[in-house]
Amino acid sequence: MSAPEPAPTKQLPLVFDEPRGRRKPPPHLADLAPAERKARLEELGLPGFRAKQLSTHYFGRLVDDPVEMTDLPAAQREELVSALLPDLMTPLRTLEADRGNTRKTLWKLFDGALVESVLMRYPGRATMCVSSQAGCGMACPFCATGQGGLQRNMSTAEIVEQVVAGARALARGEVAGGPGRVSNVVFMGMGEPMANYKAVLGAVRRLTDPTPDGLGMSARGITVSTVGLVPRMRQLADEGIPVTLALSLHAPDDELRNELVPINTRFSVAETVDAAYEYFAKTGRRVSVEYAMMRGINDQAHRADLLADVLNKRGRGWVHVNLIPLNPTPGSKWTASDPADEREFVRRLEAKGVPTTVRDTRGREIDGACGQLAAAPEPS
Question: DSSP strand E in the chain: where?
Answer without folding.
Answer: 89-97, 102-109, 114-122, 125-129, 133-135, 150-153, 184-187, 222-226, 244-248, 287-293, 319-325, 356-358
